[in-house]
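Methods: example folding runs. The two proteins below were folded one after another, and each record is reproduced exactly as written to the output file, sequence line first and structure-token line second.
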Amino acid sequence: MTPAALDTTILAVLAPFAAAIIAPIATKALKHNAAWLLAIVPLLIFLHFTRFVPGVSEGEVYTIAKEWVPAYGVTLSFYLDGLSTLFAMLISGIGTFIILYAGGYLKGHPQQGRFFSFLFMFMGAMLGLVTSDNLLSLFIFWELTSITSFLLIGFDHLRAASRRAALQALLVTGGGGLALLAGFLLIMQVTGMSQMSQVLAGGDVLRNSGLYLPILILVLGGAFTKSAQFPFHFWLPNAMEAPTPVSAFLHSATMVKAGVYLLMRMHPALGGTEVWMTVLPLFGGITLLVGTILAVRQTDLKLMLAYTTVASLGLLVMLTGTSSQKALEGAVLYLLAHSLFKGALFMVAGIIDHETGTRDVTKLGGLRKAMPITFAAAALAGLSMAGLPPFIGFIAKEVLYYGTWGLSSGALLVTAVAVVGNALMLVIAAAVAIKPFFGPEVHTPKHAHEGPVLLWAGPVVLSLTGLAAALLAHSTGELFIGPMLSSLVGAQTAVELHLIPGYISAPLILSIITVALGIGLFLMLGRLRAAVAGVLKAIGWGPDKGFDQFVAAIVKLSTGVTRLLQGGSMQTYMAVVFLATGAALLLPAVFANGMPQVPEWPDFRFYEWAVILIAVAGLGAVLVANTRLTAIVTLGIQGFAVALIFMLFGAPDLSFTQFMVETLSVVILALVMTRLNLSPRDHRPMVARIVSVAIAAAVGLGFTLVLLAITQQPFDSRLSDFFSQYSRVIAHGRNIVNVIIVDFRGFDTLGEISVVVLTGLSVLALIRIRTKPDASAPKASKSPKAKTVEAR
């Protein structure tokens, strides 16, 4: 592969973000036909990644790196092997037809351009996720998929259900993303590596680390939430509130597969342990059964497919968790098959909804003649989902059964779970692909007719691809499955796939059992649906309801904490702030190095003692003042004492500045206070006063000890020498203090001035507030108390 082709990969990954900018403009000009133009972008990306297939199939691995944030070790680096290349091809290839499909599905929608933009950002985030080599950049793309999916799921933001589903998906996957970040940071700490390729080449470094279990838990937290594993499965069906193009893209090749991708990617570094081979098959198997059982209960085509996606993700996690090479081969093969048939079936469901006005399978029938192309696509994809020959789904089922049956431990249980799950998925495949198209014609809200080419192009091509992948099984295994499996096992592995089994074996018998069980369950689908609905109704509570309860509890807790910490009392706020300040200053100063340390008191000269006495006298004047106004005026004595210290130590300019600032501060504060209702004395009880005195003393003592400790350290003159050397040369000024403020800290000074101006305006607004009399209320008496100005 030439360097130019490798550099083009960066452009290929970032191209969708550029397309996101162009999409609204193109849509405004070309309306829904902009889909034809915009689809060129993912098509070119797909063609670009196909160039890596020959090299990857021979065991080549490609890395591309560009500096991004070198100060923090973050590089924009990409890692292309069998796993990432196939994922990138699925994302861009299926994404091409999703763009076309969105053009027809949202034809005439006023926000179609915005929708295209969100789709491209989502596509770019997924491409970056599956190709990133740097752990931190992978995390950035990981969270970007959550953000962009939030925008897509909540696209119809005027509907409360869409907003809830979007927020739910963001909270669940975003929370898992934070756990993943912590896991990545621990990996970087343990290995000293920030590149995924280096971590994978590290062998048993992570498995032998004492932090292996925390790292595994954190990584699983990110993967399980993203790929909707039990008990986090509930967000995925709710995401069906999104328009169907989003559902088809989300479930086939993008976000929900991100967690599976991560587990497969990190298998060489984290897999093969007892914990791995226990936790993943357990949660994956539960998710498989829960997803298929809940799918049986549904009558909405999209929800039926959504729950089977949950089940399929559980199957993939279960197979990945076995760490058996043959089971892993079944996992990668099923991942390919699932992407093809599930993308096609979701688009079929959208076409039915778009052209008939309903997705309720109980209200559909006889559409075979009215929608022949859609029916053909549904039949081909449904047969693959059911695991019947001659489709890629059949081969995937054979291989995964071969893998589970050959496990050294738990073979019977894992195989039984796979058989039951696949049988129930056959039931749903039949319900989606047969029920709407066969039987007597049913009156639908809209006159049923075939959709435009923008709608059916995607499902037709994807379903035919599933057929072609099976008919060309040898090439599929050699070019795609073998390189992908090599990425999982960490060594070059050859794969031979055959459409027709060579002999009667356990996997073939298990396939026959699966089909027979599936047909039997399909024939009693109505009773099965009612039974599942009855059980769920009896249970009542579920994770989805638990999520609402959890969010409500968090809101209630945060409200309570806010009311506790933000009770509206300025005195409490100030006390907490100064208490924390005093603790932060006093504790480190007193207990330095674990032992009480008191700095030495300096040897003051007589005039320095005189200044200290002036400051102490000013402090006494503040304490004995009868009114707050008097206390504010006498507080200026402290500032003047500081100005005298500056003057005594040879800083007349700084001393003059201090005199001016202190004088103006006292004058302005005095003018402000004269406009307010000032209490003549402190009305607080003695206990409150003692607490305030103790806090003030702690803060004062803390600052004293810190400053004494600082003055006893050797003076570092590097900063002073820098300003002395360059103030005249760079800033063309001889007054070093002024040069620092105006030039070297120009933006900082501008910010301070802006803050002061805003504060002054705020104070002015507060002072000018007057209580407006109620016109309907009787006039208040003209007493002195009535003239009091309220400042709020």
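Second run, written to the same file directly after the first:
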Amino acid sequence: MINVTGLLKRLAIGRAMRSEELHETLLPKRLALPIFASDPLSSVAYATQEILLVLTLGGMAYLHFTPWIAAAVVALMAVVVLSYRQVVHAYPSGGGSYEVVSHNLGDSAGLVVAASLLVDYVMTVAVSVASGVDNIISAVPQLADYRVGMAVGFVALLTGVNLRGVRESGRAFAAPTYLFIAGVLIMVVTGLVRYALGHAPLSESAGFGITPDPRDAGLAGLALIMLCLRAFSSGCTALTGVEAISNGVPAFRKPKSKNAAATMSIMGIVAVAMFIGVTTLALVTKVHITEDSCRLTGLAGDCGAYTQRTVIAQLAAAVFGGENSFGFYFVQAATALVLVLAANTAFNGFPLLADILAQHRYLPRQLHNRGDRLAFSNGIIALALAAGLLLWFYKANVTSLIHLYILGVFTSFTLSQTGMVRHWNRELRTEPGADGNAARDTDTRRRMQLARVTNALGAVVTGLVLVIVLATKFTQGAWLAVVAAVVLWLMMRGIRRHYDAVAAELAVTDPRAELERPSRVVAILLVSTIHKPTLRALAYARAYKPDHLEALTVAVDREETKAIERQWAELGVDVPLKVLDSPYREITRPVVEYVRSLHRESPRNVVGVFIPEYVVGRWWEHLLHNQSALWLKSRLLFTPGIMVTSVPWQLTSSSRADHPARRAPGATRRGEPAPVHQHRSHSAGSTPPPTR
């Protein structure tokens, strides 16, 4: 019969891939760019807007600081890109900032970076999707009431695409990313050419004034510096996702480091060009935007009902001739699409980092498992759930979410560059020829020294930005990101301690003692009634040839118990049937107490309990059969010296289960249950009552 669930799964994520096909998922640069760089490229759509939103708190008086703040952001991006090129070459195995910091600054510092990045990846999905929805609403304001549903729906769509595999997601996201780049660059060039020819386009908000926020009006001295620093920290959202390429080096085609470094350079050049162009065009067209539309002056009608378009939307309308032009809709569609797809950077970075942390035993091992399409499915689903909850809680509001953003990424930037400085110090301390190889030439050492200077500059600059971000955003919501990172750090330390403790407890210290045979093996067969499953379990228990074998039933109903005793005697087997009295009609407690008493009497004996079980094929059949065996097994598993064996009996409905030949590759590795065969001991799907 057709397995509907399996069919839907195949339609959603495609055919299962063999482990040997992993090399087919490696990426060329043209696909790696949209996969790993869509976040920093798409942040151009809102980075300029965030700078303007902060500066307009003081009205229009401080907008002349915009070029200087944008220049600082560009310089910072250049330093970070150059610094991470060094990381890509020095640590090509993937881990990015986490591997650099762990190797050079210690495990605790590495976990700080890991926790910060994991939180930031969740924020990347939330902010990118929310910003994309904002741009859709700018084009179609009637959709404003469906903001949260649209955002969560986009996260679900991204999850499905990424579950199909890295290469599949790259193909799906390549065209929108390149269309966005083309649309923005065409818009910028067209607008600046019109300005140079004396026909400067004007935005729809150019005629509006801005009433200063009373708290930020007439600022001077330190207060003005803090406002500019706050605008700078908001503009630094343009740098989010820059480190994703260093985390994903293993996903590139060979030569991996060279291709990853080239992709990072392309990303940096394109992102800087787009950011400079959008910011310049926003100043030329006199875009005026505020967090509260009622602070705009010159509005006709109800200010509260006025929906401000995003900066990108206003620029597109101004340059291409209005909100009904083809150019406007093209830019808006490409922007909305790429902002939603920018979350894909996190959908690749988060599972890769979680995989490395799982290998190092800081996260559950399930995050190391690959799915049918060789993607880290558990990590993808975990990221989607966290981002979806965040979007729901903050109602997909970009302004609210942005305050939680970029803190983690600058933490990783700073510690990573500091770790790279220590890396180069260690390399340069190596005496020429001391390792038995040819002496390093002067050019090699000069390149190392230049790399150290680049990373040192990056550490200082990103450290200053981290301080600025903390000072300007902490009380506005960034504290929540800090708390989340701290909780995650503590959780990962706890998981590692647990795994270490389990490994130490399970380690073989005295092989002879571990291999010592028990004095006797006592087998107990649980009997609820005399039927085929009971007899199969009896035969299976006898095949083990225990030193002592007895059947056990619980006298809940005296008449039924007598019938069982009579039938057992008629079988004529040489296995005694023991009846446990249960005046309060309990089943589990008498059995558990009796089995434990056998072990207490002879601690060197092993007691094996054999439980006949039904195997059914329909979910609702599980509800129709007594589940006491499950509870009984869970109680017995906590008792040392007790072995529990399930002996399955397949009912007709169990034939609905998948044939073994149709199991997906990797199913055993992922822990999916093997098909049930007769005369095989293992835990079956559902359980009939083992006793009465």
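Comment on the second run: Residues 326-359 form the longest helix (34 residues).
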